[in-house]
Amino acid sequence: MGRSPCCDESGLKKGPWTPEEDQKLINHIRKHGHGSWRALPKQAGLNRCGKSCRLRWTNYLRPDIKRGNFTAEEEQTIINLHSLLGNKWSSIAGHLPGRTDNEIKNYWNTHIRKKLIQMGIDPVTHRPRTDHLNVLAALPQLLAAANFNNLLNLNQNIQLDATSVAKAQLLHSMIQVLSNNNTSSSFDIHHTTNNLFGQSSFLENLPNIENPYDQTQGLSHIDDQPLDSFSSPIRVVAYQHDQNFIPPLISTSPDESKETQMMVKNKEIMKYNDHTSNPSSTSTFTQDHQPWCDIIDDEASDSYWKEIIEQTCSEPWPFRE
DNA sequence: AATCCCACCAACCGCCGTCCA
DNA sequence: TTGGACGGCGGTTGGTGGGAT
């Protein structure tokens, strides 16, 4: 399979397109369509290679291209789809009418990727970075993530103050770590950041081979899924399979018996199921989570966190060498 | 005012898969 | 079956503009 000589030909112009060149290309395609891209430059009177013409047309001149900043919806869609598809920019672009793969790729690399990194989230795996010793150092990022959630949480199913959620979830994860030091080898703040986003990990939301909770379906249907299905509220149902996981953000005291906790878990699962089948039940779902967040005063100062961190650090740290 | 630095993004590069003679 | 032509894709580059020093 030989390489195309297209752009290797000498004498062809490279670099930025002039308005005249653009106009020639537009006029030609309007009249004749693009046909063979290789033949097009000659027919259109352009001293460019076909590839360059195609790129210019598909990425810039096409009439259906949407200009301007990405909306919050588009940004969330990109993040969701990227967590599922990886760097399949053209596939992602297929879900964003008017956006090109190149534009999305650029936007990812210049904006979203940095945002995720700042939040302590690996932009490749969409999971918290596992260098857990940095978790505490990443507190500001986690809180920033909570604010970011405000931007992304378009469903508005969760009405809680995002910072409260972040604090509660972080504390929640810390407790889990300290109580699970025999079974866990890493500080899993996955669930924490899941909820910071107002939804669980996109990977967990979808039935696929990476999702240990749902192995009944494959990925083949993904491209057919309506976009709406990519945005979902916190998915409590997943926790029922995680025996080691403390029920998330529920109104139970830490002293409650395991049995009671299981009852609450089941209640939450039922509530979630009800919530998903009946969106009007949002308020119940939200209100029932309030007490947990009340535990953590929104106005808690730095001393509050200092205390937690000091306590945490004074405990036998399961991950220290 | 000059210089440096950095973010952004259009455009290029090179590889891959498909089509077809 | 082979290999050239072509379109498509993802990674990378380099020009540009704006802010900082």
UniProtKB/TrEMBL annotation:
It comes from the Eukaryota. GO terms for biological process: response to cold; seed oilbody biogenesis. The keyword Chaperone does not apply. Its main location: nucleus. GO terms for cellular component: nucleus. GO terms for molecular function: DNA-binding transcription factor activity; transcription cis-regulatory region binding. InterPro entries: Homeodomain-like_sf, Myb_dom, Myb_TF_plants, SANT/Myb. It is found in: Nucleus. Pfam families: Myb_DNA-binding. Residues 9-61, 62-116 form the HTH myb-type domain. Gene3D superfamilies: Homeodomain-like. Keywords: DNA-binding, Nucleus, Repeat. PROSITE patterns: HTH_MYB, MYB_LIKE. The keyword Plastid does not apply. Residues 9-61, 62-112 form the Myb-like domain. This is At3g02940. It comes from Arabidopsis thaliana (Mouse-ear cress).
